[in-house]
Write a structure and sequence with these properties.
Blueprint: H1 2-24, E1 26-29, E2 36-37, E3 44-47, E4 56-59, E5 72-75, E6 83-88, E7 94-101, E8 114-119, E9 122-128, E10 136-143, E11 148-158, E12 162-163, E13 165-170, E14 184-193, E15 214-215, H2 219-222, E16 231-235, H3 250-253, E17 255-259, E18 263-269, E19 275-282, E20 296-300, E21 311-313, H4 314-317, E22 328-334, E23 337-344, E24 353-354, E25 356-364, H5 371-381, E26 405-407, E27 415-419, E28 426-428, E29 441-443, E30 448-451, E31 464-466, E32 471-474, E33 488-490, E34 495-499, E35 510-512, E36 518-520, H6 529-559, E37 600-601, H7 604-610, E38 617-620, E39 625-630, E40 636-641, H8 647-660, E41 671-677, E42 680-686, H9 693-698, H10 708-728, E43 733-734, E44 743-745, E45 751-753, E46 760-761, E47 769-770, H11 782-787, E48 789-790, H12 792-808, H13 815-818, H14 824-833, H15 851-864, H16 875-889, H17 920-923
Parallel strand pairs: 1-3, 14-15, 27-29, 28-30, 29-31, 30-32, 31-33, 32-34, 33-35, 34-36, 37-41
Antiparallel strand pairs: 1-13, 2-3, 4-5, 5-12, 6-11, 7-10, 7-13, 8-9, 8-11, 10-14, 14-25, 16-17, 17-24, 18-23, 19-22, 19-25, 20-21, 20-23, 26-27, 38-39, 39-40, 40-42, 41-42, 43-46, 44-45, 47-48
Helix pairs in contact: 10-12, 10-16, 12-15, 15-16
Length: 934
C-alpha cells in the first residue's frame, strides 16, 4: 500500500509537466493523408500536407508492423534541389528532433536510396538504406538558435530521398546542457536499456519526453556483442528516484544487468564515429544489499589506461538505493567500435551493474546564411507570392543554393548574385536590398518595378547591375559612377529622369540608358586653355619618350655581343633557337612577366653530354620521358623531355617553368633549369635517388618495404609541400595531379612533390577556378569532375587517396582487389565505418603499428575523400593529424593526468582535427580542468 501511494504521489507530481510536454509535441506522418491518434502511445499524428508542397505520397508495400505512420512515405525527386520541413521552435530552448525512414518497397527493382539529411545548414546524417524492412532512426538534440528550424533532404546518390516521420519534442530546461551547445548539436548514436524484458523499445508514455530506449535484446539495432560470462538480468517494481539531470524513465531504471562473476563487458557499434562524444551511464541500485555488502566497480577499455582510480560506488554516489546516479563524460573521443567493461574491485562483494547508457556525437553547427541577407530575400519573396520560383525551401545557400541566388563559400555564406529577371515582380524595390553588401551582380530586369532606385550606396562590390525594362522613376544615383568594381549598368526602357551623372559617361563601364526620354546629358562646354595646354604638354612628353626609347633600343641591338646561351635565363632565348610553337617561352608571354626568377637556361649540347645522349631512361611522367644525367659540376639531375608537341603540352612546359621558378620549398622538387632548342622542350630537375612513392608501395618486383613510421614521415613531407602551395604562395597554387608517382624520395628518403605541368594558380578574389578537368583516374576529385570548379580541396581529395594507399598498400583502382566497387574509396570507407580498420591495413605492417596511430590517419583520410569539398579538411589540418600519428607511433603522447573524480576520461584516443572540433583541446588539458564527470 505504501508503495502504491508513493507511486501515485509521483504520478500526480509529473502530470502537469507531462501534459504540457505532450501539447507541444509535433508528430508528422510524412506522406500520410489524414490525422489520427496512435493507440499504442496516445500521440496525435498529423499529415504533412500543411508542412510541405513538394514530393508525393507513396504507399509502403511492406510497412513496419501495424504502425500507421509507416504505411506511407513521402518521396522527393532525385535532383539538385533540397526539400525541407519547417518546424516552429522557441529560441534557446532544447529539443529532440527525430526523423525516421522505412523504405519498404523492396520489390521495385530500383537500387536502395542513399541521400543526405540536413538540419538547417548542418549536415545531420547520410541515410543509406541497406534493409528495406528496417526503420532507420536519426535523432538530434539541439538548442534552437531561432524561432524555426528546417529539416531538409537532398543530394541522392542512388534512388530518391524519402521520409516516413518527423518529430519535435521539447525537453526540460536542465536536460542535455553542455558547454559546447553554441557550436555543436548532439546527434544521438546509442540509447540502450539494459536488462529489458523484451525486444520492444521504451518510449512515450513511459518516457515523458518520448526518447526511444532500445532494448539490449535487439542485437540487430545495437550490435551488442561480447557479453561476459555470468551476466544476468534483474528487475524491480520499486520506484526509482530519477529526478536529477537527465530524467530517464523509471521503467528503464527498473531493469539492469549485473556481472555475477565480477565483470560486465560489451561491444557496441557507433555509426558516424570516430568522433567526440557525450557519454552517459545511468545507474541505480535495484537489488537489496545487506549492511556488509558493497557494489564497487571501475570502467575498463582496451588500450586505454588511467581508470584504476575511477571507482563507482552507486549507493555512496546516489545517496541511497533506488536513486539515480549519472556518471558521464562530457567530451570524450570514441572509436566506431566501443568496447567497454565494468569490473568489480577487490573489496566489493557484488559484481558491477548497468541500467542504461546514452551516447551522442558532437556535430559542429554550420552557420546559416547571414541573417540580413536572408531577411532581404524574404522581402523579395513577399513581392510575388504563389510563383513557382518563390517556393524553394530551407537555407538559401546550404546544402544547395536556391535557383535565383548565388552564394559565397564564406561562413556564414553571403549572397553574391540576385537573379530575378522576368519574375513578375511588382512594386518598389525593397529598401532591404542595402543589406546585401556582399552582392556583386543584381539582375532585376524585365519586371514591373516602380518607384525610384533605393539607396544602395554601400553595395561597393557590385560589378553588374540590370534594372532595364521596368517602370522605375526618379534620378540615377550619382554614387553609382564611383563604385570601384562596377563594369556594367543597364537602366534602359524605364521612366528615369534628371541629369545623367558625368562619372557614368567616362567610358570606364558599359552604360545603357536608352528609352528614358526625360534623362538629360550634361552639355559639354568648350575646353578651356588650361586643358588644351595640359593635353599638348602631355602629347609632347610621350613623343619625346618614344624617340629616346627607339634610340636606346637601336643602340642595344648594335652593341649586343654574341654570348653563350648557357648564361641566359629561360625568358632570354635568342631568336636562332626560338621555337615556332604558340607557347614558346619567348612568344607565349607566360614567362616574360616572371622577371629574373625564371630558371636558368641549359643548352641542348650540355644536356646531351650530361645524359650521354639520353641513354639512361629512369621514368615517364605526364610531361614525357625522364632521363638520368650528371652535369659538369657533378650535380645529378633528372631530365624530362616534352613528348607532347601539342599546344596543351607546350602550355604544361611553360606552366611548370613559370611556377617552379618562383616557388621554393624543401618538400617540392626543385627545378634546376630548362632548355628550348631545336624544337625540344626540356626541364631539368634535381635527381631524386629513391624514386617515387608509387614504386615503394606498389612495385611487386622490386618493392622497397616501408615501415609505418617511414610512411608517416613521407606523408608529412608531401602534405607540407601541398600546404605551402595552398597557403604559402600568393596567389595559391592547386597542384591538380597529386598521386604517389608524383611524390619523389631523395637520398635521405625525404619526400618532395613533383610534376607541376597541370597546376593552376587560384585567383585570390575567387572561391574556385573554372577549369577543364585534368588529373589521373583514381585520384580525381568527383566534385571537380562534376562541376569543373577547381579548388584546393581537389588536392585534398587526391591526397586522401594517397593516405589510403599508404595504409593499405593497394592501388587506387583495381577490379581484382575491389570487385564491383573497383575503387579504394568505396572499399576503405565501408570497412572504416564499420570500425574494422585492421582489414584495410597492409599485411606487411601487421604487428608493427599502434592502432591509435593507424586510426588517426584512417580518420583524416576518410574526411579528405568526403564527396563535398566543403566537408574536407585543409592541408594544414592534415599535416597536424599526421604529426599526431607520428607522436603516437613514437610513443610521445602527452602524459595525461588522471583526475580523482570518478569517470573523468584521460586517454590518448583519436580526436578530430582541432579546426574541425575545437572543443577537443579542452578535454586533454593537464590536471583536472577537463570537463568533469557528472
Amino acid at each position: 500500500m505504501a508503495l502504491s501511494s508513493h507511486l501515485l504521489v509521483l504520478f500526480l507530481h509529473l502530470i502537469p509537466s507531462v501534459i504540457c510536454q505532450v501539447t507541444e509535441f509535433v508528430s508528422i506522418d510524412c506522406g500520410g493523408t489524414s490525422n489520427y491518434t496512435d493507440p499504442s502511445t496516445g500521440l496525435v499524428w498529423v499529415s504533412d500536407t500543411g508542412f510541405i508542397r513538394h514530393g508525393h505520397s507513396v504507399d509502403n508495400k511492406n510497412p513496419n508492423g501495424d504502425s500507421t505512420q509507416y504505411k506511407w512515405t513521402r518521396d522527393f525527386p532525385a535532383d539538385r534541389n533540397k526539400y525541407c520541413y519547417t518546424l516552429s521552435t522557441t529560441e534557446r530552448r532544447r529539443y529532440l528532433v527525430r526523423a525516421t525512414f522505412q523504405y519498404g518497397n523492396s520489390d521495385s527493382g530500383d537500387p536502395f536510396p542513399n541521400f543526405q539529411l540536413y538540419l538547417d545548414a548542418t549536415m545531420w546524417s547520410t541515410i543509406t538504406v541497406l534493409d528495406a524492412s528496417r526503420v532507420y532512426v536519426e535523432e538530434m538534440i539541439i538548442r534552437a538558435t531561432s524561432t524555426s528550424i528546417d529539416v531538409c533532404l537532398c543530394c541522392a546518390s542512388t534512388g530518391s530521398p524519402f521520409i516516413s516521420t518527423l518529430e519535435l519534442r521539447p525537453l526540460n530546461l536542465s536536460m542535455y546542457a553542455t558547454d559546447y551547445e553554441d557550436s555543436f548539436y548532439l546527434a544521438v548514436a546509442a540509447r540502450v536499456n539494459f536488462g529489458a524484458p523484451s525486444k520492444d523499445p521504451i518510449r512515450y508514455p513511459d518516457d515523458p519526453y518520448d526518447r526511444i530506449w532500445e532494448s539490449d535484446l535487439d542485437r540487430r539495432q545495437n550490435f551488442l556483442v561480447g557479453v561476459a560470462p555470468g551476466t544476468e538480468r534483474i528487475s524491480t517494481y520499486k520506484n526509482i528516484n530519477v529526478r536529477t539531470r537527465e530524467f530517464p524513465p523509471v521503467k528503464v531504471m527498473q531493469t539492469a544487468v549485473v556481472g555475477t562473476q565480477g565483470r560486465l563487458s560489451y561491444r557496441l557499434n557507433l555509426e558516424g564515429f570516430p568522433a567526440n562524444a557525450r557519454a552517459y551511464a545511468y545507474l541505480a541500485e535495484i537489488e537489496d544489499l545487506s549492511k556488509n555488502e558493497t557494489r564497487k566497480f571501475r570502467l575498463e577499455q582496451p588500450q586505454v589506461p588511467g581508470y584504476n582510480n575511477a571507482i563507482v560506488n552507486i549507493a555512496e554516489n546516489a545517496n541511497g538505493s533506488c536513486t539515480l546516479y549519472e556518471p558521464s563524460y562530457m567530451n570524450v573521443s570514441l572509436d566506431f567500435v566501443l568496447s567497454f567493461s565494468f569490473v568489480k574491485t577487490q573489496d566489493s562483494t557484488r559484481g558491477p551493474l548497468l541500467n542504461a547508457i546514452e551516447i551522442s556525437k558532437y556535430l559542429q553547427i554550420i552557420p546559416k546564411t547571414e541573417s540580413n541577407d536572408a531577411m532581404t530575400l524574404d522581402a523579395f519573396r513577399s513581392m510575388c507570392r504563389g510563383s513557382d520560383w518563390n517556393h524553394e525551401e530551407g537555407d538559401p545557400c546550404i546544402p544547395t543554393q536556391w535557383e535565383w541566388v548565388t552564394c559565397s563559400s564564406s561562413s556564414p555564406p553571403r549572397i553574391t548574385k540576385l537573379a530575378l529577371s522576368e519574375k513578375h515582380l511588382k512594386g518598389k524595390i525593397p529598401d532591404e536590398l542595402k543589406h546585401l553588401d556582399g552582392l556583386t551582380e543584381l539582375w532585376l530586369d524585365g519586371n514591373s518595378l516602380t518607384g525610384s532606385i533605393p539607396d544602395i550606396s554601400n553595395l561597393l562590390n557590385l560589378t553588374i547591375v540590370h534594372l532595364e525594362n521596368n517602370r522605375l522613376t526618379g534620378p540615377i544615383p550619382s554614387y553609382l559612377g564611383d563604385f570601384p568594381s562596377l563594369r556594367e549598368l543597364y537602366v534602359q526602357n524605364n521612366s528615369l529622369s534628371g541629369e545623367i551623372p558625368p562619372t557614368l559617361l567616362t567610358g570606364k563601364l558599359v552604360f545603357n540608358y536608352d528609352g528614358n526620354p526625360e534623362l538629360i546629358q550634361r552639355v559639354q562646354h568648350k575646353k578651356n586653355f588650361k586643358l588644351i595646354f595640359g593635353t599638348s604638354i602631355g602629347v609632347l612628353v610621350v613623343f619625346v619618350v618614344f624617340i629616346l626609347g627607339g634610340l636606346l633600343l637601336f643602340h642595344n641591338l648594335w652593341k649586343k655581343p654574341s654570348q653563350e646561351k648557357s648564361n641566359d635565363k629561360c625568358n632570354s632565348l635568342s631568336t636562332t633557337s626560338k621555337p615556332s610553337a604558340a607557347y614558346s617561352l619567348v612568344n607565349g608571354g607566360s614567362l616574360m612577366e616572371e622577371g629574373p626568377d625564371v630558371a636558368y637556361y641549359i643548352t641542348l649540347s650540355d644536356l646531351e653530354e650530361a645524359t650521354q645522349n639520353f641513354s639512361r631512361r629512369i621514368g615517364k611522367g605526364s610531361f614525357g620521358p625522364v632521363y638520368y644525367g650528371k652535369m659538369k659540376d657533378g650535380k645529378e639531375v633528372a631530365v624530362k623531355i616534352l613528348a607532347n608537341a601539342s599546344s596543351h603540352g607546350n602550355q604544361q612546359f611553360v606552366n611548370e617553368v613559370a611556377l617552379l621558378s618562383r616557388i621554393h620549398h624543401r618538400n617540392l622538387v626543385p627545378l634546376v633549369g630548362c632548355c628550348e632548342e631545336a624544337h625540344q622542350r626540356i626541364l631539368v630537375y634535381e635527381y631524386m635517388h629513391n624514386g617515387s612513392l608509387q614504386e615503394h608501395i606498389h612495385d611487386s618486383v622490386n618493392q622497397k618495404h616501408l615501415d609505418w613510421l617511414s610512411r608517416l614521415s613521407i606523408a608529412e613531407d608531401a602534405a607540407k609541400g601541398l600546404e605551402y602551395l595552398h597557403t604559402g604562395c600568393n596567389p595559391s597554387i592547386i597542384h591538380r595531379d597529386v598521386k604517389t608517382s608524383n611524390i619523389l624520395l631523395d637520398i635521405n628518403m625525404r619526400a618532395k612533390v613533383s610534376d607541376f605541368g597541370l597546376s593552376r594558380q587560384a585567383d585570390e578574389n575567387l572561391t574556385h577556378v573554372s577549369s577543364i578537368v585534368c588529373g589521373t583516374v583514381g585520384y580525381l576529385d568527383p566534385e571537380y569532375y562534376a562541376n569543373q570548379q577547381l579548388t584546393e580541396k581537389s588536392d585534398v581529395y587526391s591526397f586522401g587517396i594517397v593516405l589510403l594507399e599508404l595504409i593499405s598498400g593497394r592501388k587506387p583502382v583495381s577490379i581484382e582487389e575491389y570487385g564491383s566497387e573497383w575503387h579504394i574509396v568505396h572499399w576503405a570507407r565501408s570497412l572504416i565505418r564499420k570500425g574494422d580498420v585492421m582489414s584495410i591495413l597492409d599485411p606487411s605492417l601487421a604487428g608493427n603499428i599502434k592502432i591509435e596511430s593507424l586510426w588517426r590517419i584512417a580518420e583524416v583520410a576518410i574526411l579528405s575523400i568526403e564527396p563535398h569539398g566543403a566537408c574536407r579538411p585543409k592541408m594544414q589540418e592534415i599535416v597536424l593529424a599526421i604529426q599526431d600519428a607520428i607522436r603516437i607511433e613514437k610513443g610521445k603522447q602527452k602524459n595525461y593526468t588522471t583526475c580523482s573524480r570518478s569517470w573523468t576520461r584521460q586517454s590518448s584516443h583519436i580526436s578530430l582535427p582541432s579546426a574541425s572540433l575545437e572543443i577537443d583541446s579542452s578535454d586533454f588539458s593537464s590536471g583536472c580542468s577537463v570537463p568533469s564527470a557528472r
